[in-house]
From TrEMBL:
Cellular component terms per the entry's GO annotation: cytoplasm; Holliday junction helicase complex; Holliday junction resolvase complex
Domain description: Has three domains with a flexible linker between the domains II and III and assumes an 'L' shape. Domain III is highly mobile and contacts RuvB.
Assembly and oligomerization: Homotetramer. Forms an RuvA(8)-RuvB(12)-Holliday junction (HJ) complex. HJ DNA is sandwiched between 2 RuvA tetramers; dsDNA enters through RuvA and exits via RuvB. An RuvB hexamer assembles on each DNA strand where it exits the tetramer. Each RuvB hexamer is contacted by two RuvA subunits (via domain III) on 2 adjacent RuvB subunits; this complex drives branch migration. In the full resolvosome a probable DNA-RuvA(4)-RuvB(12)-RuvC(2) complex forms which resolves the HJ.
Functional note: The RuvA-RuvB-RuvC complex processes Holliday junction (HJ) DNA during genetic recombination and DNA repair, while the RuvA-RuvB complex plays an important role in the rescue of blocked DNA replication forks via replication fork reversal (RFR). RuvA specifically binds to HJ cruciform DNA, conferring on it an open structure. The RuvB hexamer acts as an ATP-dependent pump, pulling dsDNA into and through the RuvAB complex. HJ branch migration allows RuvC to scan DNA until it finds its consensus sequence, where it cleaves and resolves the cruciform DNA.
UniProt entry tagged with the keyword Cell division: no
Alphabetic keyword roster: ATP-binding, Cytoplasm, DNA damage, DNA recombination, DNA repair, DNA-binding, Helicase, Hydrolase, Nucleotide-binding
One Pfam assignment: RuvA_C
Region (Domain I): 1-64
Domain of life: Bacteria
Listed GO MF terms: ATP binding; four-way junction DNA binding; four-way junction helicase activity
Organism, as annotated: Tranquillimonas alkanivorans
Chain residue ranges for the region called Domain III: 169-223
Record-given protein name: Holliday junction branch migration complex subunit RuvA
Domain DNA helicase Holliday junction RuvA type: 1-62
Length: 223
């Protein structure tokens, strides 16, 4: 299993990159969001990867975070969702958006992805709703680290200064911290995930304390 690729981007296609890893080129398919976050040809990059193995096909898919990779794996487990649909969902929403949509039961958000109809979108939400808390809790720990471009000196490989990383959608650690705090207060994973997802949707830039306060208001008994 190839779990991570790090090397120089030789070529950028519309939905994939060719990454040279010490003379071996790997074609890695990515979502639209991941493609936009990657640097140009000649620059170094790193991606978590998932290998799709079929009788007549081997395909690598690349992700900027373990949370994105995990959602790809989970989405692919849903009947009717193949690699193309999974990439479309992640490209449209990003891993945080997928977490939020599934935690809130918002199948219309899933349906916004190209090629995903209402029945499939509802199936995604129904089958994966119990998985959202676990993936949301991965938080910032799933972010990939920048790649240092290797340099050669007298035939010996040495580490060069880290290459700058382009701006990319980042996981929000406040969400995982807020979920952990709610769990410590006795709330179940699913209800904590729904409340934090709704609070984060209303205030995307809220810090941990703000998310906890907003989530507690949502969880408070009505009336």
């Amino acid at each position: 299993m190839i779990g991570r690729i790090a090397g120089r981007i030789d070529y950028r296609g519309p939905d994939h990159v060719l990454i040279d890893v010490r003379g071996v080129g790997y074609v890695v398919h990515c979502s639209d969001r991941t493609m936009m976050a990657l640097p140009g040809a000649g620059e170094h990059a790193a991606l978590y990867t998932d290998l799709l193995v079929r009788e007549d096909l081997l395909q690598l898919f690349g992700f900027l975070s373990l949370a994105e990779k995990e959602w790809h794996r989970l989405l692919m487990s849903v009947q009717g969702i193949g690699a193309k649909a999974s990439m479309a969902i992640l490209g449209a929403l990003g891993p945080d958006g997928v977490s939020r949509a599934i935690a809130l039961g918002d199948w219309n958000a899933i349906r916004a992805a190209q090629g995903v109809g209402p029945k499939i979108a509802q199936r995604v939400v129904n089958e994966l709703k119990d998985k959202a808390p676990t993936v949301m809790a991965m938080g910032v720990q799933s972010e990939i680290t920048p790649v240092a471009a290797p340099a050669e000196d007298d035939g010996e490989v040495i580490e060069a200064a880290p290459a700058p990383r382009p701006a990319a959608p980042r996981s929000n650690p406040a969400q995982s911290e807020a979920m952990s705090a709610l769990a410590n207060l006795g709330y179940g994973p699913s209800e904590a995930a729904r409340a934090v997802a709704e609070a984060a949707g209303d205030a995307p830039d809220a810090d941990t304390a703000g998310l906890i306060r907003a989530a507690l208001r949502l969880l408070a008994p009505k009336g």
